Amino acid sequence: MSEKPRAETGSSEKSPTEAGSGVSRRDLLGGTAVLGAGALLAGAAGTVKGAVAAGGVTPVEARKNWYVRTVDRITTPYDLTRTKRFNEQMDSARRLGYAKYVGEEKAKEVRGRADQIRAKGIREEIPGWTLWDNALGSAGAAVKIAGADQWTPIAAKSPQERGFPPYDQPPEVAARHVKRAARAWGAVKVGITALRKEWTYDVGADGRKIAFEAVDQPYEDAEKRVIPEKVKNMIVIMMAQPLEGVHVHRTMIRGYAAGVAYGIGTWTRNALAEFIRSLGFVAIPCSNNTFVTIPHAIEAGMGELGRHNRMVCPDYGMNNRLFPIATDMPLAHDKPIDFGLINFCKTCMKCAESCPAKAISFEREPTWEVRGPWNNPGHKAWFEDAVACREYMMTENCGTCQSACPYTKNKGTAIHEIVKATAARTPVFNGMFARADDLFGYGQAKDAKEWWNLNLPPFGWERL
Amino acid sequence: MAFLGWTILGLVIAAGAVTLVSWVRVKQHRLRWYEVTLLVVGTLILVFTIEVFTGSLAELEPRAAVMALVFMGLPGLIVLGAGLGSVYRSIKRRGLATTPAVPTEAGA
Protein backbone atom coordinates (compact mmCIF):
# COMPACT_ATOMS: atom_id res chain seq x y z
CA MET A 1 0.00 0.00 0.00
CA SER A 2 1.44 3.34 -0.98
CA GLU A 3 0.90 6.61 0.80
CA LYS A 4 -0.80 9.55 -0.87
CA PRO A 5 1.57 12.37 -1.63
CA ARG A 6 1.59 14.65 1.40
CA ALA A 7 0.25 17.60 -0.65
CA GLU A 8 -3.00 15.76 -1.30
CA THR A 9 -3.73 15.18 2.36
CA GLY A 10 -4.44 18.87 2.72
CA SER A 11 -1.83 19.30 5.39
CA SER A 12 -0.56 22.82 5.52
CA GLU A 13 2.63 21.76 7.20
CA LYS A 14 5.69 21.44 5.11
CA SER A 15 7.63 18.20 5.13
CA PRO A 16 10.97 18.29 6.81
CA THR A 17 12.73 18.21 3.44
CA GLU A 18 10.63 21.12 2.16
CA ALA A 19 11.11 23.12 5.35
CA GLY A 20 14.87 22.62 5.22
CA SER A 21 16.95 23.83 8.13
CA GLY A 22 16.30 27.57 7.66
CA VAL A 23 14.36 29.85 9.98
CA SER A 24 11.14 31.27 8.59
CA ARG A 25 10.16 34.91 8.99
CA ARG A 26 7.48 33.95 11.42
CA ASP A 27 9.91 31.95 13.52
CA LEU A 28 12.42 34.77 13.48
CA LEU A 29 9.89 37.37 14.62
CA GLY A 30 8.43 35.05 17.22
CA GLY A 31 11.83 34.07 18.53
CA THR A 32 12.97 37.66 18.73
CA ALA A 33 9.82 38.57 20.63
CA VAL A 34 10.39 35.78 23.12
CA LEU A 35 14.05 36.63 23.51
CA GLY A 36 13.24 40.27 23.99
CA ALA A 37 10.54 39.54 26.55
CA GLY A 38 12.80 37.18 28.37
CA ALA A 39 15.63 39.67 28.48
CA LEU A 40 13.26 42.42 29.60
CA LEU A 41 11.79 40.36 32.40
CA ALA A 42 15.17 39.14 33.56
CA GLY A 43 16.59 42.64 33.47
CA ALA A 44 13.64 44.02 35.38
CA ALA A 45 13.94 41.30 37.99
CA GLY A 46 17.64 41.94 38.26
CA THR A 47 17.09 45.66 38.67
CA VAL A 48 14.57 45.17 41.45
CA LYS A 49 16.72 42.62 43.16
CA GLY A 50 19.75 44.84 42.79
CA ALA A 51 17.88 47.74 44.34
CA VAL A 52 16.83 45.63 47.27
CA ALA A 53 20.27 44.15 47.73
CA ALA A 54 21.79 47.64 47.76
CA GLY A 55 20.11 48.25 51.12
CA GLY A 56 17.96 51.10 52.39
CA VAL A 57 14.81 49.59 50.98
CA THR A 58 13.92 47.53 54.07
CA PRO A 59 10.78 49.22 55.36
CA VAL A 60 11.22 51.40 58.45
CA GLU A 61 8.18 49.66 60.00
CA ALA A 62 8.36 45.91 60.45
CA ARG A 63 4.66 45.58 59.69
CA LYS A 64 5.26 46.77 56.13
CA ASN A 65 6.89 43.43 55.25
CA TRP A 66 4.39 41.75 52.95
CA TYR A 67 4.04 38.58 54.99
CA VAL A 68 3.53 40.28 58.36
CA ARG A 69 0.03 40.72 59.75
CA THR A 70 -1.06 43.58 61.98
CA VAL A 71 -3.04 42.52 65.03
CA ASP A 72 -4.90 44.31 67.82
CA ARG A 73 -3.04 42.69 70.69
CA ILE A 74 0.51 41.40 70.93
CA THR A 75 0.91 37.67 70.47
CA THR A 76 2.43 37.28 73.96
CA PRO A 77 -0.34 37.18 76.56
CA TYR A 78 0.34 39.60 79.39
CA ASP A 79 -1.34 40.80 82.56
CA LEU A 80 -0.11 44.16 83.83
CA THR A 81 -1.66 43.55 87.25
CA ARG A 82 0.99 40.87 87.76
CA THR A 83 3.87 43.07 86.61
CA LYS A 84 5.78 45.13 89.12
CA ARG A 85 8.12 48.00 88.42
CA PHE A 86 11.57 46.49 88.49
CA ASN A 87 14.71 47.49 90.33
CA GLU A 88 17.17 47.49 87.46
CA GLN A 89 20.25 47.97 89.63
CA MET A 90 19.65 45.20 92.13
CA ASP A 91 17.23 42.76 90.53
CA SER A 92 18.48 42.34 86.97
CA ALA A 93 21.26 39.89 86.27
CA ARG A 94 23.45 42.78 85.23
CA ARG A 95 25.47 45.13 87.39
CA LEU A 96 25.13 44.75 91.17
CA GLY A 97 22.33 42.24 90.69
CA TYR A 98 24.76 39.68 89.30
CA ALA A 99 26.83 39.69 92.49
CA LYS A 100 23.62 39.46 94.50
CA TYR A 101 22.64 36.24 92.71
CA VAL A 102 26.00 34.47 92.53
CA GLY A 103 27.84 35.97 95.48
CA GLU A 104 30.70 38.44 95.55
CA GLU A 105 33.34 35.74 95.32
CA LYS A 106 31.89 34.17 92.20
CA ALA A 107 31.29 37.58 90.59
CA LYS A 108 34.93 38.46 91.25
CA GLU A 109 36.06 35.11 89.84
CA VAL A 110 34.00 35.65 86.67
CA ARG A 111 35.45 39.12 86.15
CA GLY A 112 38.93 37.75 86.72
CA ARG A 113 38.30 34.93 84.25
CA ALA A 114 37.21 37.44 81.63
CA ASP A 115 40.57 39.23 82.01
CA GLN A 116 42.47 35.94 81.86
CA ILE A 117 40.70 34.87 78.66
CA ARG A 118 41.66 38.12 77.00
CA ALA A 119 45.24 37.96 78.23
CA LYS A 120 45.61 34.34 77.10
CA GLY A 121 44.15 35.22 73.72
CA ILE A 122 46.70 37.96 73.21
CA ARG A 123 49.67 35.86 74.39
CA GLU A 124 48.76 32.77 72.34
CA GLU A 125 47.19 34.65 69.39
CA ILE A 126 43.95 32.70 69.69
CA PRO A 127 41.70 33.66 66.73
CA GLY A 128 39.04 36.04 67.95
CA TRP A 129 41.11 37.01 71.02
CA THR A 130 44.34 38.28 69.51
CA LEU A 131 45.71 41.72 70.25
CA TRP A 132 43.96 43.21 67.22
CA ASP A 133 40.70 41.39 68.03
CA ASN A 134 40.80 42.82 71.53
CA ALA A 135 41.54 46.28 70.14
CA LEU A 136 38.56 46.01 67.77
CA GLY A 137 36.18 44.86 70.47
CA SER A 138 37.09 47.55 72.97
CA ALA A 139 37.55 50.41 70.50
CA GLY A 140 34.16 52.06 70.96
CA ALA A 141 33.86 51.81 74.72
CA ALA A 142 35.77 55.00 75.46
CA VAL A 143 34.11 57.06 72.76
CA LYS A 144 31.60 59.35 74.46
CA ILE A 145 29.03 61.58 72.84
CA ALA A 146 28.71 64.95 74.56
CA GLY A 147 25.34 65.32 76.20
CA ALA A 148 24.38 61.73 75.44
CA ASP A 149 21.20 60.58 77.14
CA GLN A 150 20.59 63.79 79.01
CA TRP A 151 16.90 64.41 79.46
CA THR A 152 16.98 68.10 78.63
CA PRO A 153 17.95 69.82 75.36
CA ILE A 154 21.62 69.73 74.40
CA ALA A 155 21.39 72.64 71.95
CA ALA A 156 17.84 72.38 70.58
CA LYS A 157 15.50 75.34 70.83
CA SER A 158 11.75 75.00 70.49
CA PRO A 159 9.91 76.88 67.71
CA GLN A 160 8.44 79.20 70.33
CA GLU A 161 11.87 80.02 71.70
CA ARG A 162 12.92 80.94 68.19
CA GLY A 163 9.82 83.09 67.63
CA PHE A 164 7.92 80.65 65.42
CA PRO A 165 4.46 79.12 65.82
CA PRO A 166 4.41 75.75 67.55
CA TYR A 167 4.59 72.46 65.63
CA ASP A 168 0.99 71.37 65.18
CA GLN A 169 0.93 68.51 62.69
CA PRO A 170 -1.67 65.74 63.19
CA PRO A 171 -0.39 62.65 65.05
CA GLU A 172 -0.21 60.55 61.86
CA VAL A 173 1.96 63.14 60.09
CA ALA A 174 4.05 63.67 63.21
CA ALA A 175 4.67 59.91 63.43
CA ARG A 176 5.87 59.88 59.84
CA HIS A 177 8.17 62.83 60.53
CA VAL A 178 9.64 61.07 63.55
CA LYS A 179 10.16 57.77 61.72
CA ARG A 180 11.76 59.34 58.67
CA ALA A 181 14.00 61.48 60.87
CA ALA A 182 14.99 58.42 62.88
CA ARG A 183 15.81 56.51 59.71
CA ALA A 184 17.72 59.50 58.32
CA TRP A 185 19.82 59.60 61.49
CA GLY A 186 20.63 55.91 61.36
CA ALA A 187 17.77 53.86 62.80
CA VAL A 188 17.09 50.57 61.05
CA LYS A 189 13.53 50.28 62.33
CA VAL A 190 11.23 52.56 64.31
CA GLY A 191 8.03 51.93 66.24
CA ILE A 192 5.72 54.10 68.33
CA THR A 193 3.46 53.05 71.18
CA ALA A 194 2.17 54.22 74.55
CA LEU A 195 4.56 54.52 77.49
CA ARG A 196 3.60 52.00 80.17
CA LYS A 197 4.58 52.81 83.75
CA GLU A 198 4.60 49.09 84.51
CA TRP A 199 7.37 48.79 81.94
CA THR A 200 9.40 51.58 83.53
CA TYR A 201 12.02 50.66 86.10
CA ASP A 202 11.26 51.69 89.65
CA VAL A 203 14.97 52.15 90.32
CA GLY A 204 17.37 52.74 87.46
CA ALA A 205 20.78 51.30 86.78
CA ASP A 206 22.45 54.07 88.81
CA GLY A 207 20.39 53.32 91.90
CA ARG A 208 18.21 56.43 91.66
CA LYS A 209 14.44 56.19 91.78
CA ILE A 210 12.50 56.88 88.59
CA ALA A 211 9.38 58.89 89.34
CA PHE A 212 6.50 60.38 87.39
CA GLU A 213 5.44 63.89 88.46
CA ALA A 214 3.17 66.63 87.18
CA VAL A 215 5.98 68.85 85.98
CA ASP A 216 6.63 70.50 82.67
CA GLN A 217 10.19 69.31 82.08
CA PRO A 218 12.14 66.26 83.22
CA TYR A 219 14.62 66.84 86.01
CA GLU A 220 16.95 64.89 88.26
CA ASP A 221 18.62 65.18 91.61
CA ALA A 222 20.75 62.95 93.80
CA GLU A 223 17.78 60.76 94.74
CA LYS A 224 15.65 60.50 91.66
CA ARG A 225 15.10 61.11 87.96
CA VAL A 226 11.68 62.54 87.15
CA ILE A 227 9.60 61.99 84.05
CA PRO A 228 6.74 64.45 83.48
CA GLU A 229 3.30 62.84 83.65
CA LYS A 230 2.50 64.36 80.27
CA VAL A 231 5.11 62.11 78.64
CA LYS A 232 2.76 59.43 77.35
CA ASN A 233 4.43 58.11 74.20
CA MET A 234 7.34 55.79 73.59
CA ILE A 235 9.41 55.73 70.42
CA VAL A 236 11.62 52.68 70.03
CA ILE A 237 14.44 52.63 67.52
CA MET A 238 16.23 49.50 66.46
CA MET A 239 19.80 49.01 65.33
CA ALA A 240 21.14 45.85 63.75
CA GLN A 241 24.59 44.55 64.57
CA PRO A 242 27.10 43.73 61.81
CA LEU A 243 25.99 40.24 60.89
CA GLU A 244 29.43 38.87 60.07
CA GLY A 245 30.53 39.92 63.54
CA VAL A 246 27.50 38.29 65.16
CA HIS A 247 28.36 35.00 63.45
CA VAL A 248 31.85 34.91 64.98
CA HIS A 249 30.60 33.42 68.21
CA ARG A 250 32.10 34.22 71.58
CA THR A 251 35.01 36.39 70.52
CA MET A 252 36.05 40.01 70.74
CA ILE A 253 34.76 40.43 67.19
CA ARG A 254 31.33 39.50 68.53
CA GLY A 255 31.92 42.15 71.20
CA TYR A 256 32.68 44.68 68.47
CA ALA A 257 29.38 43.79 66.74
CA ALA A 258 27.40 44.62 69.86
CA GLY A 259 29.53 47.68 70.53
CA VAL A 260 29.01 49.27 67.14
CA ALA A 261 25.22 48.82 67.38
CA TYR A 262 25.17 50.36 70.86
CA GLY A 263 27.50 53.14 69.71
CA ILE A 264 25.46 54.11 66.66
CA GLY A 265 22.30 53.62 68.69
CA THR A 266 23.52 56.18 71.22
CA TRP A 267 24.20 58.71 68.49
CA THR A 268 20.94 58.03 66.68
CA ARG A 269 18.67 58.19 69.71
CA ASN A 270 20.23 61.43 70.91
CA ALA A 271 19.98 62.97 67.45
CA LEU A 272 16.32 61.96 67.31
CA ALA A 273 15.78 63.43 70.78
CA GLU A 274 17.23 66.75 69.62
CA PHE A 275 14.99 66.61 66.55
CA ILE A 276 11.93 66.18 68.76
CA ARG A 277 13.06 68.95 71.12
CA SER A 278 13.55 71.28 68.13
CA LEU A 279 9.87 70.75 67.41
CA GLY A 280 9.05 71.89 70.94
CA PHE A 281 8.53 68.63 72.83
CA VAL A 282 10.09 66.68 75.65
CA ALA A 283 12.35 63.81 74.57
CA ILE A 284 13.94 61.37 77.01
CA PRO A 285 16.48 59.10 75.26
CA CYS A 286 17.74 56.13 77.27
CA SER A 287 19.80 53.00 77.07
CA ASN A 288 18.89 49.95 79.17
CA ASN A 289 18.70 51.90 82.41
CA THR A 290 15.20 53.39 82.59
CA PHE A 291 12.57 51.48 80.63
CA VAL A 292 11.92 47.84 79.80
CA THR A 293 12.27 48.47 76.09
CA ILE A 294 11.34 45.05 74.70
CA PRO A 295 7.61 45.01 75.55
CA HIS A 296 7.32 48.58 74.28
CA ALA A 297 9.00 47.51 71.03
CA ILE A 298 6.67 44.55 70.65
CA GLU A 299 3.63 46.75 71.32
CA ALA A 300 5.03 49.11 68.68
CA GLY A 301 4.89 46.38 66.06
CA MET A 302 8.62 45.80 65.74
CA GLY A 303 8.59 42.09 66.45
CA GLU A 304 7.35 39.29 68.66
CA LEU A 305 8.72 37.76 71.86
CA GLY A 306 10.95 34.79 71.08
CA ARG A 307 12.13 31.74 72.95
CA HIS A 308 15.01 33.64 74.52
CA ASN A 309 12.50 36.06 76.12
CA ARG A 310 13.71 38.90 73.92
CA MET A 311 12.34 40.38 70.74
CA VAL A 312 12.69 38.76 67.34
CA CYS A 313 12.23 41.11 64.40
CA PRO A 314 10.94 39.59 61.14
CA ASP A 315 13.69 41.29 59.11
CA TYR A 316 16.66 40.91 61.41
CA GLY A 317 15.69 38.07 63.70
CA MET A 318 17.43 38.19 67.06
CA ASN A 319 20.01 40.58 65.59
CA ASN A 320 18.48 43.68 67.08
CA ARG A 321 19.38 46.30 69.69
CA LEU A 322 16.56 48.50 70.95
CA PHE A 323 16.64 52.03 72.33
CA PRO A 324 13.73 53.99 73.81
CA ILE A 325 12.91 57.67 73.54
CA ALA A 326 9.97 58.77 75.68
CA THR A 327 8.16 61.90 74.56
CA ASP A 328 5.04 64.02 75.00
CA MET A 329 4.84 64.66 71.25
CA PRO A 330 1.38 63.66 69.98
CA LEU A 331 2.10 60.63 67.77
CA ALA A 332 0.00 57.98 66.08
CA HIS A 333 0.74 54.57 67.54
CA ASP A 334 1.71 51.46 65.63
CA LYS A 335 -0.16 48.21 66.03
CA PRO A 336 1.48 44.96 67.07
CA ILE A 337 2.36 42.34 64.50
CA ASP A 338 2.09 38.60 64.05
CA PHE A 339 4.44 36.67 61.75
CA GLY A 340 4.00 33.23 63.28
CA LEU A 341 7.00 33.44 65.60
CA ILE A 342 5.42 31.90 68.69
CA ASN A 343 4.51 28.72 66.82
CA PHE A 344 7.93 28.63 65.18
CA CYS A 345 9.73 28.96 68.50
CA LYS A 346 7.68 26.09 69.96
CA THR A 347 9.27 23.75 67.41
CA CYS A 348 12.64 25.26 66.55
CA MET A 349 14.73 25.26 69.77
CA LYS A 350 17.89 26.33 67.87
CA CYS A 351 18.74 29.12 70.31
CA ALA A 352 18.29 26.82 73.31
CA GLU A 353 20.38 24.09 71.71
CA SER A 354 23.18 26.47 70.78
CA CYS A 355 23.33 28.32 74.11
CA PRO A 356 26.57 27.30 75.87
CA ALA A 357 25.12 28.25 79.26
CA LYS A 358 21.92 26.27 78.66
CA ALA A 359 20.13 29.38 79.87
CA ILE A 360 17.23 29.27 77.39
CA SER A 361 14.17 27.20 78.11
CA PHE A 362 13.60 23.87 76.34
CA GLU A 363 9.90 23.78 77.25
CA ARG A 364 7.63 23.48 74.25
CA GLU A 365 5.02 25.87 75.63
CA PRO A 366 5.62 29.30 77.20
CA THR A 367 4.56 29.71 80.80
CA TRP A 368 3.54 32.38 83.30
CA GLU A 369 6.01 30.97 85.84
CA VAL A 370 9.26 32.95 86.10
CA ARG A 371 12.58 31.21 86.41
CA GLY A 372 14.08 33.51 89.02
CA PRO A 373 13.84 36.97 90.61
CA TRP A 374 15.71 38.43 87.64
CA ASN A 375 12.54 37.89 85.57
CA ASN A 376 9.61 40.25 85.85
CA PRO A 377 6.31 38.32 85.95
CA GLY A 378 3.16 39.29 84.15
CA HIS A 379 3.66 37.82 80.69
CA LYS A 380 3.61 34.31 79.23
CA ALA A 381 7.09 33.51 77.99
CA TRP A 382 9.96 31.10 77.90
CA PHE A 383 11.74 32.60 80.88
CA GLU A 384 15.52 32.32 80.82
CA ASP A 385 18.25 31.79 83.37
CA ALA A 386 19.68 35.26 82.90
CA VAL A 387 22.40 34.69 85.51
CA ALA A 388 23.86 31.73 83.62
CA CYS A 389 23.64 33.73 80.40
CA ARG A 390 25.40 36.67 82.02
CA GLU A 391 28.47 34.64 82.90
CA TYR A 392 29.15 33.78 79.26
CA MET A 393 28.31 37.30 78.18
CA MET A 394 30.85 38.74 80.60
CA THR A 395 33.64 36.28 79.92
CA GLU A 396 33.28 35.49 76.23
CA ASN A 397 31.00 38.18 74.71
CA CYS A 398 28.47 35.44 74.04
CA GLY A 399 25.60 36.19 71.66
CA THR A 400 25.38 32.74 70.13
CA CYS A 401 21.59 32.66 70.28
CA GLN A 402 21.40 35.73 68.06
CA SER A 403 23.46 33.97 65.40
CA ALA A 404 21.60 30.67 65.71
CA CYS A 405 18.08 32.05 65.25
CA PRO A 406 16.69 31.07 61.81
CA TYR A 407 15.18 34.55 61.53
CA THR A 408 18.61 36.17 61.76
CA LYS A 409 19.39 36.30 58.09
CA ASN A 410 21.02 38.50 55.52
CA LYS A 411 19.12 39.80 52.49
CA GLY A 412 21.04 38.13 49.69
CA THR A 413 18.48 35.58 48.59
CA ALA A 414 14.71 35.45 48.44
CA ILE A 415 14.51 32.04 50.06
CA HIS A 416 14.65 33.58 53.53
CA GLU A 417 11.51 35.63 52.88
CA ILE A 418 9.77 32.61 51.38
CA VAL A 419 10.51 30.58 54.50
CA LYS A 420 9.44 33.40 56.82
CA ALA A 421 6.29 34.03 54.81
CA THR A 422 5.37 30.34 54.88
CA ALA A 423 5.97 30.16 58.64
CA ALA A 424 3.79 33.24 59.02
CA ARG A 425 0.89 31.44 57.32
CA THR A 426 1.18 27.87 58.60
CA PRO A 427 3.20 26.04 61.26
CA VAL A 428 3.17 22.78 59.28
CA PHE A 429 6.69 23.19 57.89
CA ASN A 430 8.31 24.81 60.94
CA GLY A 431 10.17 21.72 62.05
CA MET A 432 11.46 21.11 58.55
CA PHE A 433 12.58 24.75 58.25
CA ALA A 434 14.42 24.60 61.55
CA ARG A 435 16.26 21.41 60.62
CA ALA A 436 16.97 22.69 57.11
CA ASP A 437 18.50 25.78 58.73
CA ASP A 438 20.98 23.44 60.42
CA LEU A 439 21.55 21.42 57.26
CA PHE A 440 22.31 24.53 55.24
CA GLY A 441 24.89 25.55 57.84
CA TYR A 442 23.20 28.72 59.08
CA GLY A 443 24.07 29.97 62.54
CA GLN A 444 27.36 28.10 62.77
CA ALA A 445 30.38 29.83 64.25
CA LYS A 446 32.46 31.46 61.53
CA ASP A 447 36.22 31.76 61.37
CA ALA A 448 37.45 34.73 63.40
CA LYS A 449 40.72 34.80 61.47
CA GLU A 450 38.87 34.94 58.16
CA TRP A 451 36.82 37.96 59.37
CA TRP A 452 39.89 40.17 58.88
CA ASN A 453 39.97 39.20 55.17
CA LEU A 454 36.36 40.13 54.44
CA ASN A 455 35.53 43.17 52.36
CA LEU A 456 32.60 44.46 54.38
CA PRO A 457 30.64 47.70 53.92
CA PRO A 458 30.95 50.57 56.41
CA PHE A 459 29.88 49.61 59.94
CA GLY A 460 30.21 46.04 58.89
CA TRP A 461 26.79 45.52 57.44
CA GLU A 462 24.07 48.13 57.48
CA ARG A 463 24.97 51.45 55.93
CA LEU A 464 24.49 54.46 58.17
CA MET B 1 23.65 38.14 40.96
CA ALA B 2 24.09 41.40 39.12
CA PHE B 3 21.65 42.89 36.61
CA LEU B 4 23.76 41.69 33.67
CA GLY B 5 23.89 38.15 34.98
CA TRP B 6 20.12 37.94 35.21
CA THR B 7 19.71 39.42 31.75
CA ILE B 8 22.10 36.87 30.26
CA LEU B 9 20.29 34.08 32.10
CA GLY B 10 17.00 35.33 30.70
CA LEU B 11 18.44 35.37 27.19
CA VAL B 12 19.79 31.84 27.60
CA ILE B 13 16.43 30.55 28.81
CA ALA B 14 14.55 32.33 26.03
CA ALA B 15 17.01 31.01 23.43
CA GLY B 16 16.59 27.50 24.81
CA ALA B 17 12.82 27.80 24.65
CA VAL B 18 12.90 29.08 21.07
CA THR B 19 15.28 26.29 20.06
CA LEU B 20 13.09 23.66 21.67
CA VAL B 21 9.90 24.99 20.11
CA SER B 22 11.56 25.17 16.69
CA TRP B 23 12.91 21.66 16.99
CA VAL B 24 9.57 20.30 18.14
CA ARG B 25 7.86 22.04 15.23
CA VAL B 26 10.34 20.59 12.74
CA LYS B 27 9.69 17.17 14.18
CA GLN B 28 5.95 17.84 13.85
CA HIS B 29 5.33 17.10 17.50
CA ARG B 30 2.73 18.87 19.57
CA LEU B 31 3.85 19.43 23.14
CA ARG B 32 1.55 17.83 25.66
CA TRP B 33 0.35 19.70 28.71
CA TYR B 34 2.39 17.57 31.12
CA GLU B 35 5.53 18.06 29.02
CA VAL B 36 5.06 21.82 29.12
CA THR B 37 4.44 21.65 32.87
CA LEU B 38 7.59 19.61 33.50
CA LEU B 39 9.68 21.90 31.34
CA VAL B 40 8.38 25.10 32.94
CA VAL B 41 8.55 23.80 36.52
CA GLY B 42 12.01 22.36 35.98
CA THR B 43 13.24 25.65 34.54
CA LEU B 44 11.74 27.65 37.40
CA ILE B 45 13.36 25.39 39.99
CA LEU B 46 16.73 25.77 38.29
CA VAL B 47 16.38 29.55 38.07
CA PHE B 48 15.51 29.68 41.77
CA THR B 49 18.46 27.41 42.53
CA ILE B 50 20.77 29.84 40.75
CA GLU B 51 19.24 32.70 42.76
CA VAL B 52 19.75 30.91 46.07
CA PHE B 53 23.24 29.76 45.10
CA THR B 54 24.50 33.19 44.06
CA GLY B 55 22.68 34.92 46.90
CA SER B 56 24.12 32.55 49.49
CA LEU B 57 27.63 33.17 48.18
CA ALA B 58 26.96 36.92 48.41
CA GLU B 59 25.82 36.36 52.00
CA LEU B 60 29.15 34.59 52.70
CA GLU B 61 27.31 31.32 53.35
CA PRO B 62 29.15 28.84 51.07
CA ARG B 63 27.66 25.74 52.66
CA ALA B 64 24.13 27.02 52.05
CA ALA B 65 25.11 27.64 48.42
CA VAL B 66 26.29 24.05 47.96
CA MET B 67 23.24 22.67 49.74
CA ALA B 68 21.04 24.65 47.37
CA LEU B 69 22.72 22.97 44.41
CA VAL B 70 22.13 19.56 45.94
CA PHE B 71 18.62 19.92 47.33
CA MET B 72 17.14 22.24 44.75
CA GLY B 73 19.36 21.96 41.69
CA LEU B 74 19.27 18.18 41.44
CA PRO B 75 15.46 17.96 41.63
CA GLY B 76 15.25 20.79 39.10
CA LEU B 77 17.50 18.91 36.71
CA ILE B 78 15.46 15.76 37.22
CA VAL B 79 12.17 17.52 36.48
CA LEU B 80 13.58 19.34 33.45
CA GLY B 81 15.19 16.14 32.25
CA ALA B 82 11.91 14.31 32.61
CA GLY B 83 10.19 16.93 30.47
CA LEU B 84 12.86 16.85 27.78
CA GLY B 85 12.98 13.07 27.90
CA SER B 86 9.25 12.85 27.47
CA VAL B 87 9.38 15.11 24.42
CA TYR B 88 12.26 13.13 22.94
CA ARG B 89 10.54 9.80 23.53
CA SER B 90 7.29 11.08 22.02
CA ILE B 91 9.07 12.25 18.90
CA LYS B 92 11.03 9.02 18.65
CA ARG B 93 7.85 6.97 19.02
CA ARG B 94 6.11 8.99 16.32
CA GLY B 95 9.08 8.56 14.03
CA LEU B 96 8.86 4.77 14.42
CA ALA B 97 5.07 4.76 13.86
CA THR B 98 5.18 6.76 10.63
CA THR B 99 8.12 4.89 9.15
CA PRO B 100 6.76 2.34 6.69
CA ALA B 101 7.21 -1.27 7.80
CA VAL B 102 9.89 -3.19 5.94
CA PRO B 103 7.93 -5.41 3.50
CA THR B 104 8.42 -9.12 4.03
CA GLU B 105 8.22 -11.70 1.26
CA ALA B 106 4.86 -12.93 2.52
CA GLY B 107 3.25 -9.49 2.92
CA ALA B 108 4.32 -7.77 -0.30
How many β strands of chain A by DSSP? 11
Anisotropy-based shape of chain A: globular
Shape of chain B: elongated
The number of distinct helices of chain B, counting runs of at least 4 residues, comes to 3
What ranges of chain A have pLDDT less than 50 throughout 5 or more consecutive residues? 1-20
Structural class by SSE content of chain A? alpha+beta
Terminal Cα span of chain B: 65 Å
Kindly estimate the percentage of residues of chain A that lie in beta strands according to DSSP.
Answer: 5-15%
Gyration radius of chain A, in Å: 28 Å
Q: Give the oligomeric state of the chains in this entry, treating copies of one chain as homo and distinct chains as hetero.
A: heterodimer
Quick summary of this structure?
By secondary structure, chain A is of the alpha+beta class. In chain A, 39% of the residues lie in helices and 9% in strands.
Q: Your description of this structure?
A:
The complex is a heterodimer of chains A (464) and B (108). Chain A has 17 helices and eleven strands. Residues 1-20 of chain A have low confidence and may be disordered. Chain A is 39% helix and 9% strand. In chain A, 44% of the residues are buried. Chain A starts with 15 loop residues before the first helix and ends in a 13-residue tail after the last helix. With 108 residues, chain B is mainly α. The interface between A and B is large, with 37 and 36 residues.
